[in-house]
């Protein structure tokens, strides 16, 4: 009997402890749940306050700019356009929307292809992303926006991350990941004046849940119907008045950007050329290198390449977009540059045999040719003191091409291009992509820490396909440089 009582006491104590533990667990869960709810409420409040702060900052900036009479109307028109694209995004259940106008280089004819496109207005469900997008100011002409302008037709893509025209660096800057998009021209009185783009179709009643089907035919129809509004107060009419104001580029912060242009930048470099100076007197070695410089000048001429600078055994060459017609592949500076490089690379051994006669065969064989090509915006300007200035090109793609040639392999003839070139080639003809091989075999590991090379991918080019294209280029109707 006593033992039974002892067992009962133990069992009671155990059950009591379990009960207390259960109550403690329930209390803990309640507290944690309450704290989570409080945190979510505070996060939502912080997001709201950030949005309010951005609006206040925008109003302050607008008030400052309103003091300039030439800006007042533009600020108001831009605010109206922002409201319109936000409304359009809501109508289409999109997470973001942007409105662009074409940007031409200073002095360009407006019938030419735009160099890039400027953000007139942007809306994103995340106010921080909107601010980051507007700071970017421009999107490049080889994006899907440029494709829409060239085709003058609505374009849809529900797998934008896999689209060759999508630029992932924009996602990194904005923090917004677009999956679906619809892009359409904005027309005023039958003339194309801008581009509108919406991103990420959402589920009904859920602004954060994406519709797995993306934008469908009814969304296309709805977008086109919205853009058919022809009144002065519609999106097209408002954008027309905004764009036609002579202060437009200044208000968008782009007055200095008009001196930029897209260009293809090529570096041609002889490596192991010190073998020439070890083998020959200085004057004779310099003479051989100069013969190669003459060879470069001769070969790039038919492809409308402009020699910017000879620097020892290195050469900087630029290919302009002047005369570019998206319907004529051979007018594209991307194709012209890579065809010129293929001819230089393919004829290098023959050049050495014919023009470096008298040089020992093993010394000539040791000298290799490295060619690197990058695509992007550059500025052409005169550099140097006022008494002695020389024209040059500057920009990130110039730095990128220079770093590529610095770290390119030194043991073989090689041609490297950046991913901008790869995308542009694919837009010309997808068959060209077969001649590109992903490249990461730099001559030094320090290349991976180079800021000029960061954020891009690189490819080694097999030149034969482009040598064949170059042969076509030398035939009519392309015999004359575009």
Automatic annotation (TrEMBL):
Keyword tags: Coiled coil
Q: Which domain of life is it from?
A: Bacteria
Any coiled-coil ranges, and where? 39-66
User: What name has this protein been given in UniProt?
Assistant: Class 3 adenylate cyclase
Q: Which InterPro entries match?
A: A/G_cyclase, GAF-like_dom_sf, Nucleotide_cyclase
Looking up CDD domains in the UniProt record yields: CHD (cd07302)
Q: Whose protein is this, by species?
A: Rhodanobacter soli
Organism lineage reads as: Bacteria, Pseudomonadati, Pseudomonadota, Gammaproteobacteria, Lysobacterales
């Amino acid at each position: 009997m006593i033992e039974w009582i002892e067992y009962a006491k133990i069992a009671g104590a155990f059950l009591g402890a379990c009960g207390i533990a259960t109550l403690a667990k329930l209390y803990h869960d309640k507290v944690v749940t309450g704290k989570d709810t409080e945190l979510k409420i505070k996060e939502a409040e912080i997001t709201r306050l950030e949005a309010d702060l951005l609006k206040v900052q925008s109003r302050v900036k607008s008030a400052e700019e309103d003091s300039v009479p030439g800006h007042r109307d533009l600020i108001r028109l831009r605010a109206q356009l922002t409201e319109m694209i936000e409304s359009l995004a809501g109508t289409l259940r999109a997470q973001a929307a942007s409105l662009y106008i074409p940007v031409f280089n200073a002095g360009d004819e407006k019938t030419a292809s735009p160099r890039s496109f400027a953000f007139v207005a942007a809306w994103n469900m995340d106010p921080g992303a909107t601010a980051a997008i507007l700071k970017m100011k421009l999107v490049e002409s080889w994006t899907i926006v440029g494709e829409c302008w060239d085709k003058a037709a609505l374009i849809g893509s529900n797998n934008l991350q896999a689209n060759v025209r999508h630029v992932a660096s924009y996602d990194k800057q904005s923090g917004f990941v677009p999956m679906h998009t619809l892009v359409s021209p904005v027309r005023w009185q039958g003339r194309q004046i801008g581009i509108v783009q919406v991103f990420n179709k959402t589920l009904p009643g859920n602004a954060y849940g994406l519709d797995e089907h993306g934008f469908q035919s009814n969304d296309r129809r709805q977008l086109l119907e919205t853009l058919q509004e022809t009144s002065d107060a519609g999106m097209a009419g408002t954008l027309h008045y905004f764009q036609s104001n002579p202060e437009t580029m200044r208000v968008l912060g782009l007055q200095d950007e008009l001196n930029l242009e897209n260009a293809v930048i090529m570096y041609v470099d002889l490596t192991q050329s010190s073998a020439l100076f070890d083998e020959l007197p200085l004057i004779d070695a310099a003479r051989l290198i100069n013969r190669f410089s003459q060879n470069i000048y001769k070969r790039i001429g038919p492809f409308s390449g402009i020699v910017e600078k000879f620097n020892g055994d290195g050469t900087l060459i630029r290919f302009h977009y002047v005369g570019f017609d998206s319907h004529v592949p051979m007018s594209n500076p991307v194709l012209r540059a890579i065809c010129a490089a293929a001819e230089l690379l393919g004829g290098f051994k023959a050049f050495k045999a014919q023009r470096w006669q008298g040089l020992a065969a093993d010394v000539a064989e040791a000298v290799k040719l490295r060619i690197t090509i990058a695509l992007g915006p550059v500025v052409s300007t005169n550099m140097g003191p006022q008494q002695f200035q020389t024209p040059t090109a500057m920009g990130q793609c110039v730095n990128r091409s220079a770093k590529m040639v610095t770290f390119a392999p030194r043991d073989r003839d090689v041609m490297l291009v950046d991913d901008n070139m790869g995308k542009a080639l694919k837009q010309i003809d997808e068959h060209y992509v077969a001649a590109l091989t992903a490249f990461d075999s730099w001559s030094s590991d320090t290349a991976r820490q180079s800021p000029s090379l960061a954020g891009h991918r690189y490819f080694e080019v097999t030149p034969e396909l482009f040598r064949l294209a170059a042969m076509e280029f030398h035939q009519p109707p392309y015999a004359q440089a575009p």
